[in-house]
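Researcher: Next entry: Peptidase U49 (Psychrobacter namhaensis).
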Amino acid sequence: MEDIEIYNLATDVISSIAADLNENLYSKINGVLSVLWRTDEKFNASAQSNSKVDEPPVHTVNMYYELARQLYRDIEEYCAYIESECDKPIFDTLFGSHHKYKELIPSSFSKAEYKKNMFISTLTWVFFHEIAHLNQEHGHIRSQILQSDNHSIDECNIYKSENLEGRAAAIYHTTEMAADFEAVYICIKELVRHFKGMDLEDSIGSFACALSCALYKFHGIKPLNIDSAPKGTHPSVIVRLEHLLPQIWEFFDIAEVQSLGKIKLSRSELVYICELHSVTVGLFWFRKQLLSEEKFHEFLHIRTIDRIGGREYMKTIISTWDEIEPEINKNKRFDDPLALLRFTGQYRELVFETINS
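Model: Predicted structure:
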């Protein structure tokens, strides 16, 4: 597609979603959602609440044309990389023994449709990430706890980052992970609404791929430093991915979801589908950046708690979430309990018992 076609598609998709949200959600609480498209040459998105938490919401999401353009161009490059089969021997070694191993770009969609679907998934996830910040009033949470008047949410801008530490960084990191969680939940609900059967199975892989493309873009070539304490405004992109991929396969492992989507995939198959597509994106991004081989491990996801400092980091995130969740529940604009960030009892035990022992 030409740049203008990317811009037109992006504005059409986001305008349609915003109109639906205004009609079905915001209008019911006398609120309004606006979307502004920015021409600044930034890979960024942002959100702002122009109302108090006890007033009808007046919310604004700023989307950037440059974000849309770069997302689509990365998807084009990724598809060309897969079609080149330059790393097929690596994929064969990693995944070839699995009985679901097959074409990485499914033939159920044309190449143009696949790129378009990936692009819409990626753009939609970014947009709903901003909506989640607004829905959960993260600007209010941050300003209240950190005693600041700034209610703006400046998204993962790869060109700058505030040097936050301590409690401030913990609040920022935790609310970013909460926005990630809600955005993924909304996106995968939409997949089930639009696709069934084999198309849905292929779309699960496509969404894992699209999500990975967006996050690796935000990652850029920054080193993967997992400190035991949060620093800066955002968690490591790889850490975010390590928590979002399980959310996808756990959602589709629910019996009611499988029945509604007319699919029958085991948990191991769901894990495989998500891991396969995400790993291919990680290797693509590594190749794209032309980095040295010793840095390859920085582009692969594992379990955050298996990293040095990872358990201590997640202890802070979980404790911070437990602190702010009641306030978020009190102020959130739209009530869907499944959209809220959650940590299972089993995961909490893995984090806290090991630390305590």
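Model: Note for the record: The chain has twelve helices and four strands.
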